[in-house]
């Protein structure tokens, strides 16, 4: 599936239209520059997942040769894949960024949050996220959400005013003009990848030779099946009675918690093979592999109302 035609978003001095991928890149860079110029304390959500990696790459290009002029924020649930946390830390060190971490475990330890009966922590991220935004006095928060991922995210504008989520109160965005104004105590969420699809992301990763955590490519892993998904065996993800542990060649289309993110069987060991795989799929990565989006039919919509992305 390809994105809406954005070839008219940007053109070179000669008037030559950019190709689809370059137009998406140009639009995202424009969003970073416009919002960062208008707001005082932006921050970028960076988990080490593919969308946040691409978003960080675009931010680097937007402000090159200067460094990225804002910190990155990660809501660490304590159930993250070790490979992804290692990649996060290496990337932050390489780019010389300031990393802010909001810890779900810290909230559980001091009693402000309680473990869920199903053991997953992704739905517990909202309160630590909102506290980190408030304490950091961040007035613009860049997120890697895409409209093709999930129907609740399809309603979102590029710049979304957040005091509370109501899709009927979304501001109009005409001619690539973005309104970032807000009252004291409010902030805006900003989605530079809004018009990208999963296929666009992977095409861009291939074109720009962007490094990702290794679990995005096929590898052998011990897994067990639950609710139609292959979950990884780990400290926070253990099989229940009757769930058999098997070794399969798998990869991850999206990276959430180990306790709620499923792998897919795959032979795609490099970017070219992943591109072929993604081009043939008809199910979004969240719909196929995220248990936290299956809690109810409106799971993502409900979490957005609470303050989640």
How many distinct domains?
Answer: 2
Radius of gyration: 19 Å
Q: Structural class of the secondary structure composition?
A: alpha/beta
CATH overall fold name of the largest domain: Rossmann fold
* Major sheet summary line: 6 strands, mixed
Number of strands: 10
Features:
10 strands; 309 residues; four-stranded antiparallel sheet; alpha/beta; 10 helices; 2 domains; disordered N terminus; Rossmann fold
Summarize the structure.
By secondary structure, the protein is of the alpha/beta class. Strands 3-2-1-4-6-5 form a six-stranded mixed β-sheet, sandwiched between helices. It has a four-stranded antiparallel β-sheet with strand order 8-7-9-10, with no helix packed on it. 33% of the residues lie in helices and 15% in strands.
